[in-house]
């Protein structure tokens, strides 16, 4: 479904992505881990055309992703994105945030979009917060609204860019629980995360990225138990035992 | 004091007519400067240099020339180029153009204050640039833009007095004419000052209401 072939990108002399390849099948969950600056967010942003890439080819269901093409808007509407800092629209309520895409991009009638949005917010555990503005919600609640907003577009896949990194530790669980449910329901997901527990639970594959390269790829269990690469081992040790 | 009120009774009808023209002039110039300012701001923020560079040049030129000189130019120089305008037309176009540069900079500040993450979130929903501008950027930019906009309205009301220099029959001009023929400078200009103050009060109130209306989350 998502196909990344030999993608490279540079800022001047700095190689952000170097010959990265990744195939994500329908219904598959892939986690991408790696130190900050390793290019994991950039990879994700290239997949839905928020950033330009210099070499290689990215395609979604066979349709090439190019930031400059007219088709990029249609493509983006089919791939959801959840951001580290939520990026909810602060001038709209939770319900309006979720309705925005269906009503204004897809042209779904308001009443219908409203019912669907309310159902989605209920699904992420926010049935009581439909009319709350983002400023009145906790980080974890905001992120769940953001997930509902992505779901409202009925996307083929959702990309998660460190969805729990900006959250207080006690709020991480609620967001992960929602993501876990989605994964079990068969949503195709690419998740940039440090949550190895989550990766072990749902991800069929984990990619370890460092300096723009895929250093290691495997199941979470295998990577946790027996990382093949020195750098993977170092990184995992630091993530799992921060002190 | 009694003389003041007697004179005021004589002068007020003429001055009130001037007030009507002042209000018309301010409103026309406000609308024009808002529209033009918005266009300049969009051009200035455009990634296309063919749009952004002329906009920067235009804003710089307009801001660097006194409003009075711009009015003279439109009223006295344009006829030489075959463009005849009435004093009122020249006045509102001149004020509108002069203020459009400030409006553009205010618009730009508002638009640039919107978190880039907002645009990315909108893009990731598949929204196109015009829709993003209308649904995501402008509603947020307006909060940053409105407080200076309120100020601009009040400044424009007062600066409309500059149009008296090109014979627009607005409040200041009316005052000048009465003062020149009666020599009652004290009475006339006290009245003129009070009338400007009176007109600015509802604007101040309106500006504050706008702010409150759009400032809420």
How would you describe what is shown here?
The complex is a heterodimer of chains A (243) and B (217). By secondary structure, chain A is of the alpha/beta class. Chain A has helices at 40-47, 72-78, 94-106, 110-123, 139-151, 169-184, 196-202, 220-225, 230-240, and strands at 2-11, 14-24, 29-33, 55-60, 63-64, 79-82, 157-161, 188-192, 205-210, 213-218. A six-stranded mixed sheet of chain A has the order 6-7-8-3-9-10, with helices on both faces. A four-stranded antiparallel sheet of chain A has the order 2-1-4-5, covered by helices on one side. In chain A, strand 7 (157-161), helix 6 and strand 8 form a beta-alpha-beta unit. The longest helix of chain A has 16 residues, at 169-184. The model of chain A has no long low-confidence stretch (mean pLDDT 91). Chain B has helices spanning 2-45, 49-64, 67-77, 87-112, 116-124, 129-159, 171-182, 185-215. Helix content of chain B is 83%, strand content 0%. The model of chain B has no long low-confidence stretch (mean pLDDT 92). By secondary structure, chain B is mainly α. Chain B is built from eight helices and no strands. In chain B, helix 1 packs antiparallel against helix 7 (171-182) and helix 7 (171-182) runs antiparallel to helix 8. The longest helix of chain B is centred in the first third of the chain and has 44 residues, at 2-45. At the A-B interface, helix 2, strand 6, helix 3 and helix 5 of A face helix 5 and helix 6 of B.
């Amino acid at each position: 479904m998502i196909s990344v072939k030999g993608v490279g990108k540079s800022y001047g002399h700095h190689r952000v992505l170097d010959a990265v390849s990744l195939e994500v099948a329908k219904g598959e969950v892939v986690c991408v881990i790696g130190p900050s600056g390793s290019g994991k967010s950039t990879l994700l942003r290239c997949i839905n055309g928020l950033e330009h890439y210099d070499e290689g080819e990215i395609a979604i269901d066979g349709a090439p992703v190019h930031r400059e093409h007219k088709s990029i808007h249609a493509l983006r509407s089919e791939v959801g994105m959840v951001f580290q800092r939520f990026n909810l629209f602060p001038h709209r309520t939770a319900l309006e945030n979720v309705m925005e895409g269906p009503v204004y991009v897809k042209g779904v009638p308001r009443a219908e979009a409203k019912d669907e949005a309310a159902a989605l917010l209920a699904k992420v555990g926010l049935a009581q917060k439909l009319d709350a503005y983002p400023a009145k919600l906790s980080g974890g609640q905001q992120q769940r609204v953001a997930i509902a907003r992505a779901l409202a577009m009925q996307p083929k896949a959702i990309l998660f860019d460190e969805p729990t990194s900006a959250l207080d530790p006690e709020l991480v669980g609620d967001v992960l629980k929602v993501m876990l449910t989605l994964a079990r329901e068969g949503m195709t997901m690419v998740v940039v995360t440090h949550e190895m527990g989550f990766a072990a639970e749902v991800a069929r594959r984990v990619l370890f990225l460092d300096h723009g390269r895929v250093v290691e790829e495997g199941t979470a269990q295998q990577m946790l138990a027996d990382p093949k690469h020195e750098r993977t081992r170092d990184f995992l040790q630091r993530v799992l035992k921060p002190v | 004091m009694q003389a003041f009120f007697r004179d005021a009774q004589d002068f007020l009808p003429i001055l009130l007519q001037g007030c009507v023209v002042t209000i018309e002039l301010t409103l026309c110039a406000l609308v024009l400067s808002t529209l033009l300012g918005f266009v300049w701001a969009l051009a200035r923020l455009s990634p296309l240099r063919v749009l952004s560079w002329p906009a920067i040049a235009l804003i710089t030129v307009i801001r660097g020339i006194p409003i009075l000189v711009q009015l003279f130019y439109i009223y006295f120089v344009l006829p030489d180029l075959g463009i005849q305008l009435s004093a009122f037309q020249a006045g509102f176009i001149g004020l509108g153009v002069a203020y459009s540069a400030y409006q553009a900079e205010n618009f730009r500040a508002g638009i640039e204050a919107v978190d880039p993450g907002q645009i990315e979130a909108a893009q990731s929903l598949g929204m196109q640039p015009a829709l993003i501008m209308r649904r995501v950027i402008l509603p947020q930019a307006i909060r940053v833009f409105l407080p200076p906009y309120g100020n601009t309205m009040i400044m424009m009301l007062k600066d409309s007095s500059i149009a008296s220099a090109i014979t627009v029959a607005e409040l200041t001009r009316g005052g000048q004419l009465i003062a020149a023929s009666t020599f009652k400078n004290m009475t006339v200009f006290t009245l003129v000052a009070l009338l400007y103050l009176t007109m600015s009060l509802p604007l101040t109130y309106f500006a504050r209401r706008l702010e409150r209306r759009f400032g809420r989350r």
